[in-house]
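[[Encoded backbone]]
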Amino acid sequence: MKRPIRILLQTTIPETEDDWHIGRFSLLRDHLASLKDEAGNGLCRVTARNRESRAGADDPVLSTLDRSDFDELWLFAVDVGDGLTAADCRGITREPNALDDIKTYVRNLAIWLAPYETDHATAQNERARQLTCS
């Protein structure tokens, strides 16, 4: 059995009732967690969390992300400009594959958010191609 992809879904704000906290992305979390291979094994192990610290303070997970066991970071930058500290950015970018992970995230998010069309697969591929970072 292949090891599940360890995905971190993370917002750049602490829990805030009337804002884009991680609970607003529960359908995405549930969908990723429900994906199975042919044998019924889970394909993804999903951790969903908000920023734990206030603006200006380092997030304990993001600032040490390069030392974690996550394979992918799906970062929802929903703050107003102060969601990541310098240490958070270093923790994200120290990992050599971080940029590839961000590109994968953008592509996957574009596909997930694509409206249903007659030829859904073609539409998803076209949207992903257009939105993928170069």
